[in-house]
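Why does this matter for the project? Reviewers at the last site visit asked to see concrete outputs rather than summary tables. In response, this paragraph embeds two records directly. Each consists of the residue sequence and, immediately after it, the corresponding structure tokens. Nothing has been edited or filtered.
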Amino acid sequence: MVSNSSVAAQLQGQLERIMVSIFTGVPCVALLTINAIILFTLRSKQVFRETSRYVLLTNLLVADSVYMMISQILYIMANSRVFLSYPVCGTLVLYAMLTDSIFPLTLAVMSVERYVAVCFPLRHSSIVTMRSTAAAIALVWAFSFVNVLIRVVLMCQFPFEELDSLHMRTVCDVFAVLLTPAAAEYDQVFKISVFSFTGLTIISSLVAVMITARSASADKKSARKAQSTLLLHMIQLVLGLSSTISIPVVVALFQVMSWVSFVRMMIVIYVLVLLLPRCLSSLIYGLRDQTIRPVLLSNLCCGLKPAARTQISPQ
């Protein structure tokens, strides 16, 4: 016969899982809604659809939104103690990794676009075209897809045939595809290489823009705005890197904290480190852009604030 204490413990556990799902689900839905409004804004006018920097921002938002949705699905399943099979878990994690690598690479492309706009203003329209922008986006996705294929090959080296079942005995997380030492080492090398490349690209673009701004023939206003944009990209990169750094921090906290405290800390880390950076930086980018801001504010206010006439501003 089941004792009252065990029933109470089960009810308490179920209540905690429900509360955790609410505390993480509500911010995720709110942030995804903001991303959806920004995406709607970027697709609402032809001038946004035919300007390279807005097309790149759209690509970034799409990847970030998919990443947030998959992360939330995995988080809810882990919180609910839902154990998946290795193929299903691996597919979800690899999709998240695909969109996660889009983030820094797109920032690199956006930084180069700002560098060309300030340092080569007369050639910007001929260099940064819709065709070259589409090619850059295709290259970013192709590179990320190759990364996923390599991870699949490394994951297949694990001796799954020696397992009694392909059903996992733990929750699904990023470690589900890091089953071999080679896979874990490749993961570290890839992340360090991508973030280093993006960081160097942003810093190089920023330095070039600052040097150009000192010349007498430079457009001072345009150069200052480009510097602010590149600094925003650097902040975005640091926020994105924080999600990678948080993994060993989480492992260390799990070893020294009680389960209840660990769960509460995980909620804070998940919302502030994984979810918030994927929305906040794009929202700031949209609000500080003189072209997007009137239309975006109108959409955020459900059309109550009239949108001003849209003209491209030299960000």
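We now turn to the second protein, recorded in exactly the same manner.
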Amino acid sequence: MGIVYKRFLDGYPRVFCCKCKTHVSHSEALVSKMSIGHHGKAWLFDEVVNIIEGEPEDRPMTTGHHTVKDIYCTNCRELLGWKYERAEDESQKYKEGV
């Protein structure tokens, strides 16, 4: 697999992996705190680092049908959330790629 280089964020308040404290994002990348996931509240970011993407899969979600990829911490492989690849509903297209 090779060497995995972790990116360290500085300047803004940071968001960390809850298991290993690897930097994942920063406060300026926060788009919304209004999302709801399977395990409760979810935050939407437009920039994340130190992640591994899973395979794309179609999922019915509260805001409609989406194609998403699970994202995992590069350091400990903890499931962090998901990334939107495609949204069917036009009003949800802003989520694509984040």
